[in-house]
């Protein structure tokens, strides 16, 4: 069930069961090595251009840290978990991500479905 909460805190709008989506959200957090930002950005650019044509891929976003933590975040959305896992387990996936790995020393991947969303007053 997907719920959207109005900004005023009023009634939640719940998506009917037949309109629910299997959309998968993925958060990939990476710690970029010192001095590795440009190499990381170049590798990410190659990945995003490739993944844009993958069936089921909806959107990809790159978040830059606003402090000196070097902790970057890549988020993506997929039509279904099956689309994501087909891409992730495909032969090209490892080769595509290999150049990125030389620029990071820590990673964490989270996968989830959004079940509630609060929108701003202007949305």
TrEMBL record:
Spans traversing the lipid bilayer: none
Record Gene3D superfamilies: 3.30.70.100
GO MF annotations in UniProt: monooxygenase activity
Keywords: Monooxygenase, Oxidoreductase
Organism superkingdom: Bacteria
Entries under Pfam families matching the protein: ABM (PF03992)
Record domain ABM: where: 24-112
Keyword Oxidoreductase: yes
Name used for this protein in its record: Antibiotic biosynthesis monooxygenase
Species of the source: Streptomyces clavuligerus
């Amino acid at each position: 069930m997907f719920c959207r909460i109005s900004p005023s805190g009023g009634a939640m709008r719940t998506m009917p069961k037949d309109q629910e989506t299997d959309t998968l959200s993925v958060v990939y957090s990476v710690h970029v090595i010192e001095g590795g930002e440009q190499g990381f950005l170049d590798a990410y650019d190659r990945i995003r251009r490739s993944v844009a044509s993958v069936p089921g891929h909806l959107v990809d976003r790159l978040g830059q840290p606003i402090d000196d933590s070097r902790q970057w975040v890549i988020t993506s959305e997929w039509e279904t978990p099956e689309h994501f896992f087909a891409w992730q387990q495909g032969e090209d996936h490892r080769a595509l991500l290999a150049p990125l790995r030389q620029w990071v020393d820590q990673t964490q991947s989270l996968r989830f479905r959004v079940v509630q969303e609060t929108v701003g007053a202007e949305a």
